[in-house]
Amino acid sequence: MNGFTKNGTALRTCPLCEAGCGLEITVKNGSVARIRGDIDDVFSHGYICPKGSTLKQLHDDPDRLRKPLVKRDGVHVEVEWDEAWREVERGLSDVITRHGRDAIATYMGNPSAHNLGSMTFGRVALQGIGTRQRYSASSVDQAPKQLTGGLMFGTVQSVPIPDIDHTHYLLMLGANPYASNGSLCTAPDFPGRLEAILARGGKVVVVDPRRSETAQKASEWLPIIPNGDALFLAAIAHVLFADGLVSVGAHIAPHLNGLDDIRAAMERFAPEAVERACGIGAPTIRRIAHELAKAPTATVYGRIGTTTTAFGSTTSWLVDVVNTLTGNLDREGGSLFTLPAAGGATTKGQPGRGKGFAYGKGHSRIKGLPELMGEFPVAILADEILTAGDGQIRAMVTLAGNPVLSNPNSGKLDRALASLDFMVSVDIYLNETTRHADVILPPPSHLQRDHYDVFLLAFAVRNVANYSPAVLPLDEGQPDEWEILAKLGMIAQGAGANADPAVADDMAIASLVGSAVRDPSSNVCGRDAEELVASLSSTGRRGPARMIDFMLRTGPYGDAFGAAPEGLSLDVLLANPHGVDLGALRPRIPEVIRTASGRIELAPPQLLADVDRLWAHATAVDDDKLMLIGRRHIRSNNSWMHNIKVLVKGKPRCTLQMHPTDADARGISAGQAVRVRSRVGEVLAPVEITDDIRPGVVSLPHGWGHSVAGTRLSVAGEYAGVNSNVLTDEDLFDPVSGTSVLNGIPVAVRAG
Ligand SMILES: Nc1nc2c(c(=O)[nH]1)N[C@H]1C(S)=C(S)[C@@H](COP(=O)(O)OP(=O)(O)OC[C@H]3O[C@@H](n4cnc5c(=O)[nH]c(N)nc54)[C@H](O)[C@@H]3O)O[C@H]1N2
Ligand SMILES: Nc1nc2c(c(=O)[nH]1)N[C@H]1C(S)=C(S)[C@@H](COP(=O)(O)OP(=O)(O)OC[C@H]3O[C@@H](n4cnc5c(=O)[nH]c(N)nc54)[C@H](O)[C@@H]3O)O[C@H]1N2
Ligand code: SF4
Ligand SMILES: [Mo]
Question: Could you give all domains of the chain from N- to C-terminal order, each with its CATH number?
Answer without folding.
Answer: 1-60 (3.30.200.210), 163-342+588-612 (3.40.228.10), 623-751 (2.40.40.20)
